[in-house]
Each structure stands twice: as structure tokens, then as C-alpha cells.
TrEMBL record:
Designated name of the protein: DnaA/Hda family protein
InterPro entries: P-loop_NTPase
One term under GO cellular component: plasma membrane
Annotated GO biological process: DNA replication initiation
GO molecular function: DNA replication origin binding
Gene3D superfamilies: 1.10.8.60, P-loop containing nucleotide triphosphate hydrolases (3.40.50.300)
Top-rank taxon: Bacteria
């Protein structure tokens, strides 16, 4: 079958509140984000595995609260703003110093502002030297995200295909959801690969096409496991 070279055009997925797919695996975390500014604690920590949707929730809150992302070197000025609202993504791997993190969390605890942080690790498991920082984080509100359940994964797949203006039958969505890696990052990669494959082969989206894409994804994962990367691979949460 003739094929064409698909152009790798940029595609930005929407991180708006209306694009959140709600399921039992993320409902409590979404409710916690939506309850701002009436938080019981001024620091909310969203904990979950890679690809669980932490960054999406952080973006939703940043849009709602008018929050800014904490950056090394500019944090002191942010803390001087009355009622500051700050996002710290990947707190457990942050480029901020422990002293800066403690100043931020402590200032929010004292009522000076609000902080939403994301992490792969619960507070008690974070390898911080400052015990006061760890204790402040342990006292924060923690909302945990589990691995995507069937409803969430299927809903995200439908949304991602719709974002690319691709029609896909519900049974095809189920076919993918039952066979792919259970993460939202994987859903993004698979949908992008299906889009490229359908364009290159000029085929309608079918079980045969989906199987080719999934086989390639599995082979790529196996290859990465066997051949270590020369440089760390950044993963979006």
C-alpha cells in the first residue's frame, strides 16, 4: 500500500479544567483542587506515579488561582507578594534548594499564600536533609492519584483522538485501553503514533492498524529496557 511521510506537526494537548476526565482514580484530587480558595491547609500536595495527570491538575489550579511556577532565584520576590499562589512541580526532584522550599511552605502555613506541589513520592519518603521541611510537608493536605482505571484511560483516549479530529469507534478505544501501558503519558504517545500511522498508510483506523502501533510501542519499551539511555529521559507527569 502506498504511504506518505507524515509531517511531525506540533500538537499541544489542552490542560484546561473542562478537559479533565473524572474517574474514581482521580476524583478526590480533582475535588481538592476545585475547593480552592477554601482549603483547610494552605499547602496541597498531589502525589502519583508518572503519567497519572499531576501536571494537568497543577495547570488547572494555576489557571484558576492565577498561580505562578516557582523558579530558582525568583522565589524571594514571589514570597513578598501578598496572598501569593505558587506551583511547585516535581517537588521530590525540585531544582529549588531545601531552604527555599522550607521558606515557601512555612510562609504558606503561616497564612501568607497558597502552594500546590506535585510529587511522585509521599512526604514521608522524600529524601530531604531538613527535617523541618519534611515535617511541614507531612502536615500538608495530600491527594493521591492512582494508576488510571478503565474509565479514565478510555475517556482520555477519546479526548486525545478528538483533539486530533480523528474518528474512532468505541470498540477500538476498548481495544487500545485493554492492551496499552496504563498511563496517561502512554495514551498520548499511542494516539500520536496512531495519527502518524493512519496518515502514512492512508488507512482508516482499524484493529490491524492499532495492533501495528501497539507492537511498535512494546518493541520500543523492550529496547529501552535493554539499551540504557546515554542521558536521562525527561518524563511529563
Amino acid at each position: 500500500m502506498p504511504s506518505q511521510l507524515p509531517l511531525d506537526l506540533p500538537h499541544a494537548a489542552s490542560l484546561a479544567r473542562d478537559d479533565l476526565v473524572v474517574s474514581p482514580s482521580n476524583r478526590l484530587a480533582i475535588e481538592a483542587v476545585d475547593s480552592w480558595p477554601h482549603w483547610r491547609h494552605s499547602v496541597l500536595l498531589i502525589v502519583g506515579p508518572p503519567g497519572a495527570g499531576k501536571t494537568h491538575l497543577a495547570n488547572v489550579w494555576a489557571e484558576r488561582a492565577g498561580a505562578r511556577t516557582a523558579e530558582p532565584g525568583g522565589l524571594v520576590a514571589r514570597l513578598a507578594e501578598p496572598g501569593f499562589r505558587i506551583v511547585v512541580d516535581d517537588l521530590d526532584r525540585s531544582r529549588l534548594s531545601e531552604t527555599d522550599l522550607f521558606s515557601l511552605v512555612n510562609a504558606a502555613r503561616l497564612g501568607a499564600g497558597s502552594v500546590l506541589a506535585t510529587s511522585r513520592t509521599p512526604p514521608a519518603g522524600m529524601a530531604f536533609v531538613l527535617s523541618d521541611l519534611r515535617s511541614r510537608l507531612c502536615a500538608a493536605t495530600v491527594a493521591e492519584l492512582g494508576a488510571p482505571d478503565d474509565d479514565l484511560l478510555a475517556g482520555v483516549l477519546v479526548k486525545l483522538f478528538a483533539d486530533r479530529q480523528l474518528d474512532i469507534a468505541p470498540r477500538m478505544v476498548r481495544y487500545l485501553a485493554e492492551r496499552m501501558e496504563r498511563s496517561l503519558d502512554s495514551a498520548r504517545r499511542v494516539v500520536a503514533a496512531v495519527d502518524r500511522e493512519a496518515l502514512a498508510s492512508k488507512e482508516r483506523i482499524s484493529t490491524r492498524l492499532l495492533k501495528r502501533v501497539l507492537d511498535r510501542e512494546s518493541e520500543a519499551v523492550r529496547h529501552q529496557a535493554v539499551v540504557p539511555a546515554r542521558y536521562p529521559v525527561a518524563t511529563e507527569d
